[in-house]
Design goal:
237 residues; alpha/beta; 10 helices; 8 strands; binds 2-phosphoglycolic acid
Length: 237
């Protein structure tokens, strides 16, 4: 994995429509971004195929927001990593805190999903991060350390540190907190993987966050839904 690259990931969560995706790509296509910036858009599953085919010729990749750990089978409503690959994806987010908390996903399951993604030829973007209660109890590194030990497969993947309390709150972690945790994650993973920061990243704070040592890029939720705002975040890289 090329560590000098900056990676900017858009996580649209359960937002978006065909017309929004088309308008979004139209705006992005008009911009010219610096070389060495890897742009990944993760729309809902219904838009993956369409977007993967609309980005042809653009320096943009498409990723999914989750996958099943098994290759195929009787799993109503689920989508396998191979199906995502077939639809044109290059990446998949696994272990997002919303999946961990709302769908009861454990680190052991996240590891299986990440392995399934690798086996299908996708790059997993593996999310980790502590809750506010865990941070206030002084357990942030203990929790993140445990997630690292239990969630990571063998192979090439991207990590995303997303403190749960910073997601969707409008209040990103401070530069000191980000620097401290990223230094810890980089040391625990021997610098082998890109480590993105996520949690209330927007155009106004992206540049500062991207200059913090150990931060290889950002995972952007809410601010990735508006093409102009997202373009500013890419430009900050
Ligand atoms: P946010 O979400 O940028 O809206 O805080 C980030 C994420 O959940 O990935």
């Amino acid at each position: 994995m090329n560590r000098s690259k900056r990676t900017i990931v858009a996580n649209w969560k359960m937002h978006g429509s065909l017309s929004m995706a088309r308008d979004f790509l139209e705006v992005i296509a008009q911009q010219s971004f610096a070389a060495g910036v890897e742009i990944v858009i993760c729309p809902p599953a219904t838009l993956l195929y369409e977007m993967a085919h609309q980005i042809t010729g653009l320096d943009i990749r498409v990723g999914a927001q989750d996958c099943h750990a098994e290759k195929e089978g009787a799993f109503t409503g689920d989508i396998s990593a191979a199906m995502l690959k077939d639809a044109g994806c290059g990446y998949v987010i696994v272990g997002h805190s919303e999946r961990r908390s709302q769908h009861g996903e454990t680190s052991a399951l996240v590891k299986k999903k990440a392995q399934a993604a690798l086996d299908a030829g996708l790059v997993p973007i593996i999310c980790i991060g502590e809750t506010l209660a865990e941070r206030q109890a002084g357990r942030a590194k203990e929790i993140v350390g445990q997630q690292l030990r239990e969630s990571l497969p063998e192979g090439d993947f991207i990590l995303a540190y997303e403190p749960v309390w910073a997601i969707g709150s409008g209040l990103a972690a401070t530069s000191d907190d980000i620097s401290d945790m990223h230094t810890y994650i980089v040391s625990q993973t021997h610098g082998a993987h890109a480590v993105l920061y996520g949690g209330s990243v927007k155009a106004a704070n992206a540049r500062e966050i991207l200059t913090i040592a150990g931060v290889s890029g950002v995972l952007v939720g809410g601010a990735s839904l508006k093409a102009e705002e997202f373009c500013k975040i890419i430009a900050a890289a």
